[in-house]
Design brief:
This protein is of the alpha/beta class. The protein is built from 16 helices and 26 strands. Helix content is 30%, strand content 24%. It binds S-adenosylmethionine. S-adenosylmethionine binds next to strand 16.
């Protein structure tokens, strides 16, 4: 199987493309607006600020899609729901009312039911959430897994920060990850991790061969199972092992005789490491200086996904992340030689993932690698990109998509594709002066000092446009002291091209090249392969997103 990255709503993708019992491990980290007042859970108000762009997919309202979702559950669409899950949602409707929180739980129930369907019998499911919704989500998971011979295995607590200041309450410094399996027979690799420092410090003795050992108790005193009462070399006690084992340990030089007792020598080089525990304190969250960081606020550390994937899958297994964000799961799955499927509803995520894979693994997985000498395929393409417009009809369909959650997705796709995933999307609510994205070009100023000049992108899907849009773009370039502007239009327009010629050129002093001050790019040209080719700031996406985070305008 090729790896697959889907751009779209995971419910549609799961239903249409992912077959029954094909996934070994699914991890999801769905959005939830945890900053919301917890007491809102019992409120039926529906007047949320639905105009927010990015936050939109984690802002829940009781709307048509919630009504449809409820209907699907009550009618057991495709037979994926259990009686218990239907009863649970009907019960919760009585408790919570048709408000934002029920809308969230309906949407999660629909998706977790599909995830249960696609999991293999030996498959595992991890659900990452926080304490705002965890108890409700556990009810949903229990209702979907347990009646069909599934198991709740663990509630993991990930200490995501050492200190979190919350006014007048305990600092909320943990996330919760539920671990379910589809059956009793599931993949568990018995992964061991490094011993804690405190454990390591117990290995303080050296034997005659220089091996480190720790002294361990051999008596059964206080143990519930009782022990074996006998005398060994003059020392009588309740021992943990029968006398035969004691003799063997002695022959192997694994006993240490104190004045009054016998201790067991545990050798460090025989310790396979610590078994995994429910409370995870050894994986820090990404710091602002972390190399892994991509500027995506809900990005999870690779270490966490490494732990989960290594514990619950083997090489070659299929890993699914249906809310894949900036692609932590898929990047780790790739690193650990697993097959993977990623789904996300925003093009920014898809773009970030494509760039992350290229940066981490040094090639574009969607393209085959051709040997320059023999012209033969050296490495075939290993990634299928689905749901991303490939032709004009697809682009028109995206531009006309009637889904409020997908506001500006056409513009995001156009900017990021044209800019080779090296631009930042302008998600500001209003006041964007028609600018949909920005990139940064390297240049030098009059004093020869390196500078980054703004490149602006404006995207239009109208069938006709007057030349004033070009004039307006020029006005914005002047005001922002930007270098260049690109107007990307769905329909090619001669009148705009003619107007753009009036604004002359920008000269890049560093590279001694000139570029039209304004260029009109048609979507068809872009689909045919036309891309931004400017001396770009290499890590523009990372740093630009950091910048925009500071400006509070993206992914907030
Ligand atoms: C909390 S983030 C996941 C972060 C991810 N674990 C990482 O480390 O990057 C949640 C993601 O789910 C996506 N999302 C929200 N609703 C979705 C839906 N219905 N279908 C697919 N993706 C969705 C959002 O676009 C967002 O990128």
């Amino acid at each position: 199987m090729n790896n697959q990255l889907f751009y779209g709503d995971n419910l549609d993708i799961l239903r249409q493309y992912i077959a029954n019992e094909t996934v070994d491990l699914c991890y999801i980290d769905p959005p939830f607006n945890s900053n919301e007042d917890y007491n809102q859970i019992y409120s039926t108000q529906t007047n949320q600020d639905i105009a927010q762009a990015q936050a939109f997919i984690d802002t829940w309202i009781w709307d048509d899609s919630a009504n449809l979702g409820l209907n699907d559950i009550i009618n057991n669409k495709n037979g994926v729901f259990t009686v218990q899950s239907i009863q649970l949602i009907l019960g919760l409707e009585k408790v919570l009312g048709k408000g934002s929180f029920l809308a969230y739980l309906v949407s999660m129930t629909q998706r977790i039911a599909e995830i249960h369907r696609v999991l293999k019998k030996t498959g595992s499911f991890y659900l990452h959430c926080d304490s705002v919704a965890s108890h409700y989500l556990k009810l949903v998971c229990d209702a979907l897994f347990i009646p069909r011979a599934g198991f709740f295995q663990n509630e993991l607590t990930w200490q995501r920060t050492s200190v979190h200041s919350d006014a007048k309450k305990y600092g909320r410094n943990k996330d919760i990850i539920f671990f379910y399996t589809k059956s009793k027979k599931y993949i568990w690799t018995n992964l061991r991790i490094d011993l804690k420092k405190s454990t390591l410090s117990n290995y303080k003795y050296l034997d005659e061969n220089g091996r480190k050992w720790a002294s361990d108790n051999l008596t059964a005193k206080g143990l519930s199972g009782g022990g074996y009462e006998y005398e060994y070399k003059g020392i009588k006690s309740y021992w943990r092992c029968p006398i035969g084992t004691m003799q063997r340990l002695d022959e192997e030089n694994r006993l240490y005789f104190t004045k009054t007792g016998i201790r067991l020598k545990r050798y460090l080089d025989e310790n396979k490491g610590m078994a995994l525990q429910e409370i995870i304190t050894d994986i820090p969250a990404l710091s602002s200086r972390s190399k892994e960081r991509l500027g995506y606020p809900t990005q999870k550390p690779e270490g966490l996904l490494e732990r989960i994937i290594n514990a619950s899958s083997n090489e070659g297994d299929v890993i699914l992340d249906a809310y894949c964000g900036c692609g932590t799961t898929v990047a780790v799955a790739e690193k650990l030689n697993r097959q993977w499927i990623g789904i996300d509803i925003t093009y920014q995520s898809i773009s970030l993932i494509l760039k992350r894979l290229e940066d981490n693994f040094g090639r574009d997985f969607t393209k085959e690698v051709i040997d320059p000498e023999t012209k033969e395929v050296k490495i075939p393409a290993t990634l299928e990109l689905n749901g991303v417009p490939q032709d004009f009809a697809g682009a028109v369909a995206l531009a006309n998509k009637q889904d409020d959650r997908l506001r500006k997705e056409f513009e995001k796709w156009a900017v990021l594709t044209f800019a080779n995933n090296r631009a930042i999307i302008n998600d500001k609510k209003g006041g964007d002066q028609g600018i949909d994205g920005t990139a940064f070009m390297v240049d030098v100023d009059e004093n020869g000092k390196q500078v980054y000049k703004q490149v602006l992108f404006s995207v239009k899907s109208n069938k006709t446009l007057s030349p004033t849009v070009v004039r307006d773009l020029f006005g914005t370039i002047e005001r922002e002291q930007a270098a260049i502007g690109y107007l990307i239009t769905l329909y090619p327009m001669e009148n705009l091209i003619k107007e753009s010629k009036k604004y002359g050129f920008y000269q890049n002093k560093m590279f001694g090249k000139i570029y039209p001050k304004i260029e009109i790019i048609s979507i068809q040209e872009m689909l045919d392969g036309k891309r931004l080719s400017l001396p770009m700031m290499i890590e523009v996406l990372k740093s630009a997103e950091r910048k925009s985070l500071q400006n509070d305008d993206i992914f907030d």
